[in-house]
Write a structure and sequence with these properties.
Length: 663
């Protein structure tokens, strides 16, 4: 949707660190006048060329949802890559290196430091030059400038999220800047966040409330307000808000980049975040953004509430432009993107059992879900498996049992699996594929045409991945990796046709940058941090959580903990409520590029990573052998891993930059 330009020979300063040609980074501008080289002025001669420069500013966005570009997918502990493998041309393994602790200052994985500072310069160019365009209204010019201002703030945030304190670019340096002007310093972390929040505030009044379908993906008032809420919550979180672990990060001027704070100063950040979340939710309500309830599901399910719930929960991620999507990533063309390959390679060939397929393009099953993530989802009672009253007194999650009538839409009847997979919340079944588990997808045409009404359990494929089964491990390029699969990331509409398995239909969906559920959870988190679970806004806090729980078909917070847990009233303290909110967020936002960042901003990553990556004994055929907890990888996480290192070459260009702690 967002078209970009080609070939401009304008030199740029990358964050005041080094001189670099824009054309050397990206081939964006294609505005070449007759008999001459392109200039920046040529881009703003007409609206038809300026709109492409506007697209250039969007083209730098984080590749959310792309396996080799999004560190929050394969760079953390929520999904685990099959390593090593030779199918890297489909889903690269760059981010996998971060997950395995191989980051270094001489080889920085996911290093987009220069990339984002180039983006910031282009946004400045848009802001400075759009008024020159003759065939645009003043209102549209103001809107485009606001988009440039917002994107500039967003790119600063992307840098902050990775590197912490960064050099703020209030305006890109002139081309004749001196060497000393180029050698900028990093700004203190609060100054960084304040700049981003102020820029978003300046942009919001001039942004559009909505766009036609042909322009989906451009930023709206609601998207900007929602992103402001997220930025504000990050600024208030322990990693950035008076982080004593970073107190020795002091530059050559003697400026402390992470200054100490009083408890009251920390609280002020959370108060600001709480209001920002409330404002964003109000902005979403104005344009009828609301929780997704499956209005656009086309599969005929009759009155089968179990299957409807399954598709609604999966649809929050991969149903295109659903009602709660605030801002979606539309970057890159669909036909050749990694997002399409993800759908081909991270899935299971569900039809293989009946059609005998062994396709070379699809079903590599090369992305797995660690056992600890499967364990983190709630029971059907809405509480963790460790505190559910029904799972006490010698209950062993790895005991072997058979699928029964009560679970017929979740687990193949009569199939041997483990107790861990029984009596779990609907999100467990909607988000995860597993041995013996039902997976609504890849349905044959004959099944799709059944009428009237609902699918029977026999119509729905099941996963069988023990040794000797159709989806078992096959060498270094085909999984499973752990025994659990990220079903949520695979649209149910996908099909594999032909016995060779080479004709694969995939489904485009804009990867969620932020959606309403995310805002609800951030708002609940901020309220609890400000006033705990018993303050004047506690009713709103519980409503945010309970609306999400209601859609997931689990009891509200108080009912769940009082009626079904071994720790009634756990929600009545701030610490208990914090743990509940964090786990609610982990479960609802699973595989949505949020856990990676959340564990860092909460400073909970060391505790979670120390649990390591476990799965099952994938080479076994007998259930009692297959369902043995098996170590896949001992995952490291050190203090230094909270932030990216600044690359050695960048430090050499600018000796005024100070390296991050531990690097």
């Amino acid at each position: 949707m967002l078209k970009i330009f080609n070939k401009i020979k304008t030199s740029v300063l990358i964050a005041g660190v080094a001189l670099m040609s824009l054309a050397s980074c990206n081939d964006y501008l294609d505005v070449v006048p007759d008999g001459g080289d392109p200039t920046l002025d040529d881009a703003f001669n007409l609206r038809s060329t300026a709109i492409r420069y506007r697209g250039t500013c969007y083209s730098y966005m984080q590749k959310d949802g792309f396996g080799s570009g999004d560190p929050a997918l394969l760079g953390g502990d929520e999904l685990w890559d099959l390593y090593p493998r030779t199918t890297q041309k489909y889903i690269g393994q760059t981010m996998t290196m971060i997950a395995r602790g191989l980051q270094s200052k001489s080889n920085v994985y996911g290093n987009d430091w220069d990339h984002y500072f180039t983006a910031i310069r282009d946004c400045d160019n848009l802001i400075d030059n759009v008024d020159k365009v003759p065939d645009m209204t003043d209102e549209e010019k103001a809107q485009w400038k606001a988009e440039g201002r917002f994107l500039k703030a967003y790119y600063h945030f992307c840098l902050i999220r990775k590197w912490g304190a960064i050099p703020i670019t209030k305006h890109s340096l002139p081309m004749d800047a001196s060497v000393e002007e180029v050698r900028v310093y990093r700004d203190p972390i609060d100054s960084c966040f304040n700049f981003v929040l102020d820029e978003i505030d300046k942009a919001i009044p001039y942004l559009s409330e909505s766009f036609d379908e042909s322009e989906y993906g451009y930023v709206t008032k609601a998207a900007a307000a929602a992103m402001k809420a997220r930025v504000a919550c990050y600024a208030a979180s322990p990693l950035f808000n008076g982080n004593e672990d970073q107190k020795n990060l002091v530059d050559k001027r003697g400026v402390q980049l992470f200054p100490s704070k009083t408890e009251e100063q920390k609280l002020e950040r959370w108060k600001y975040a709480m209001q920002a979340c409330k404002d964003a939710i109000d902005e979403c309500e104005k344009v009828n953004i609301k929780l997704y309830t499956g209005q656009d599901i086309t599969l005929r399910l009759g009155d089968n509430d179990t299957l409807k719930t399954d598709l609604i929960l999966r649809g929050t991620l991969c149903q295109p432009w659903n009602t709660e999507l605030i801002w979606g990533n539309t970057q890159l063309s669909w036909g050749s993107s990694e997002r399409q390959y993800w759908q081909m390679l991270a899935t299971v060939d569900l039809q293989a059992k009946t059609l005998g397929m062994s396709g070379p393009i699809t079903g590599y099953r090369c992305v797995g879900v660690p056992l600890k993530i499967a364990e983190e989802f709630y029971t059907k009672h809405g509480v963790p498996i460790t505190v559910d009253r029904d799972r006490q007194n010698g209950w062993n999650e790895l005991d072997i049992v058979r699928g029964d009538e009560a679970h017929k839409y979740y687990i193949e009847k009569g199939y041997e699996t483990v107790k861990l997979n029984f009596d779990r919340e609907p999100r467990f079944y909607a988000y995860l594929g597993f041995d013996g588990g039902k997976w609504l997808g890849q349905l044959p045409e004959a099944t799709l045409q059944k009428a009237p009404g609902q699918l029977s359990p026999e119509d729905i494929f099941d996963v069988e991945c023990r040794n000797g089964k159709y989806a078992n491990k096959l060498g270094g390029n085909q999984g499973p990796v752990t025994g659990y699969f990220p079903k949520r990331t695979i649209p149910y509409q996908n099909r594999v046709s032909g016995n060779a398995g080479t004709n694969v239909s995939t489904t485009f969906f804009p990867y969620p940058i932020i959606r309403l559920t995310d805002l609800y959870l951030l708002y609940a988190e901020a309220i609890n941090e400000v006033e705990g679970p018993n303050g004047p806004n506690s009713a709103e806090m519980f409503k945010c959580l309970n609306d999400i729980r209601e859609r997931a078909h689990i009891p509200d917070v108080k009912t769940a903990w009082d009626s079904y847990s071994t720790n009634p009233g756990y929600y009545s303290t701030q610490a208990g409520m914090r743990a509940i909110i964090h786990q609610d967020r982990m479960n609802e936002m699973a595989f949505e590029s949020q856990r990676f960042w959340d564990l860092r901003r909460w400073k909970e990553a060391p505790a979670e990573y120390s649990k390591n990556i476990y799965g099952f004994n994938l080479n076994a055929s007998d259930p009692t052998e297959y369902y043995k907890k098996t170590l896949v990888f001992e995952q490291p996480f050190l203090l230094r891993d909270y932030f990216w290192p600044i690359s050695t070459s960048t430090m050499e260009h600018n000796p005024n930059l100070i390296q991050n702690t531990g690097w």
